[in-house]
Amino acid sequence: MENQSLNYKNVWIVGDSYIRRGEERARETMGTSLGLDARVQWIGWGGLRWERLLPFIHQSLRGRAAPDVLLIHCGGNDLGNTKSLRLVADMKRDLQDLHWRFPGTKILLSAISQRRRWRTANPGKIDKTRKWVNNVMATFVQSFGGIFIPHPTIKFDNADLFLKDGVHLTPRGNYIFLNSMVHSLKD
């Protein structure tokens, strides 16, 4: 990865355990700033579901200026627990709210990635829903100038990318996940 200069200096990466664990891996391999010429704030909460994301972000904002870039990875824990139509409606509403409240903040949404195991329902059905949610949200985020970050190389059939729980990523999987985010932040 070549180190390009960014137009922004304050980046927040917010989300579920993928973010919390990603920060740990970044610290070990590329530094918590991900090699970017920016201040990167990691705000991860294991088990985070979408309904708690906006309050979590607003709580994190108390006494601080809005970031130049807000990268969000959340929603995977909702699949199988929340109806897909409601999840998409909530995601759209909350991202639109963030866009209106913080018009100077660039919003990036990280795709819900594949898993080897879903804790709540039939894996085939959940993966079909995951693809649909990602497709709808990619179009939506791009409609207001945001960026959607796909993770095409994180595949459920590659056991080397997942821990034994089938949900969380191994160091190699985390490296791939982090690289997707870094490339999107540099573009």
From TrEMBL:
It catalyses: a 1-O-alkyl-2-acetyl-sn-glycero-3-phosphocholine + H2O = a 1-O-alkyl-sn-glycero-3-phosphocholine + acetate + H(+); 1-O-hexadecyl-2-acetyl-sn-glycero-3-phosphocholine + H2O = 1-O-hexadecyl-sn-glycero-3-phosphocholine + acetate + H(+); 1-O-hexadecyl-2-acetyl-sn-glycero-3-phosphate + H2O = 1-O-hexadecyl-sn-glycero-3-phosphate + acetate + H(+). GO terms for molecular function: 1-alkyl-2-acetylglycerophosphocholine esterase activity. It comes from the Eukaryota. CDD domains: SGNH_hydrolase. Residues 14-174 form the SGNH hydrolase-type esterase domain. Its EC number is 3.1.1.47. This is 1-alkyl-2-acetylglycerophosphocholine esterase. It comes from Synaphobranchus kaupii (Kaup's arrowtooth eel). The lineage of its organism: Eukaryota, Metazoa, Chordata, Craniata, Vertebrata.
